[in-house]
TrEMBL record:
Transmembrane segments: 88-109, 121-139, 160-183, 189-206, 213-230, 236-258
Pfam family, one: zf-HC2
Domain (Putative zinc-finger) ranges: 9-39
Descriptive protein name: Putative zinc-finger domain-containing protein
Organism: Catenuloplanes indicus
Keywords linked to the UniProt accession: Membrane, Transcription, Transcription regulation, Transmembrane, Transmembrane helix
Length: 268
């Protein structure tokens, strides 16, 4: 459909809300985003229908006052910026990501005020930061439009990975800087954190990202965080010798994610 424009009957069925196959909807909407000619043709199809123009006008009248004047260069720039952001993240998630960053930064402050013979608290929490970032980026509780977005034809693993990338770019740099300040080098926790991210994405395809993140966080807390704080010793699983094991976990989780990637086309 990228080389040949959409047939008229298919545009008509799409404009009138006919039940089209899911894969057809995905390709058609992707094409309409890039093709002004087909969008113009669809406009003519809508205008030729005796019912659709009335429906479109009623929606415009209801929604128009909430959108502001919609004129001027500044408005156009804001509109394009919001459209670009919507492809990678949603504004409602950004405050949650900021809260995610606040957790390890609070651990850094506690580390500075606590006894010096304990392992860095940030070192124990840092591998979970990517997990929390992924959880808030694809979650019905943090995204008011999640249910609507998750069932659209273009939703799927690609959108999940885009939001995951944004979450990582927002959360990892400040945590890495804080880790360097307290002796929790990113070289020790970054690979485990990325492995956890792959595990959450793979398990999230089956159970939902939020549930997978809760499970990974609980397991890490019980198996590593609590015993480490009790023994006051650096965890073996975060030693340099454990890097090959974490790499194997990441590769295995990526393979599982590739196998069940279509599950992300369901609303979770």
């Amino acid at each position: 459909m990228s080389d040949v424009c959409v047939p008229e009957d298919l545009l008509t069925r799409y404009a009138t809300g006919d039940d089209l196959p899911e894969e057809t909807l995905w390709v058609l909407e992707a094409h309409l985003e890039r093709c002004p000619a087909c969008r113009a043709r669809m406009t003519r199809v809508i205008e030729a229908d005796p019912v659709l123009p009335v429906l479109v006008e009623s929606v415009r009248v209801a929604v128009g006052p909430r959108l502001g004047p919609g004129h001027g260069r500044l408005w156009g720039l804001r509109h394009r910026a919001r459209r670009a952001l919507a492809r990678w993240a949603v504004p409602a998630v950004l405050p949650w990501l900021a809260m995610t960053v606040a957790v390890p930064l609070a651990a850094t402050l506690l580390e500075a005020a606590g006894p010096g013979d304990m392992p860095p608290l940030l070192l124990l929490i840092a591998p979970l930061v990517p997990v929390l970032g992924v959880a808030v980026s694809w979650n019905r509780w943090t995204d008011p439009a999640h249910a609507l977005v998750a069932v659209t034809p273009q939703a799927g693993l690609t959108l999940v990975l885009r939001r995951t990338l944004v979450a990582l770019l927002v959360t990892l740099p400040p945590v890495a800087l804080a880790g360097l300040a307290v002796g929790a080098s990113p070289a020790r926790w970054l690979l485990p954190g990325l492995a956890f991210t792959a595990v959450v994405l793979a398990a999230g395809a089956l159970t939902g990202v939020g549930r997978a993140a809760v499970g990974v966080t609980a397991l890490w807390s019980v198996a590593v965080v609590v015993p480490t704080l009790a023994d006051a010793r650096d965890p073996v699983v975060l030693a340099p010798a454990a890097a090959p094991a974490w790499l194997a976990v990441a590769v295995a989780a990526t393979a599982v994610l590739a196998r069940f990637r279509d599950r992300y086309r369901l609303a979770r």
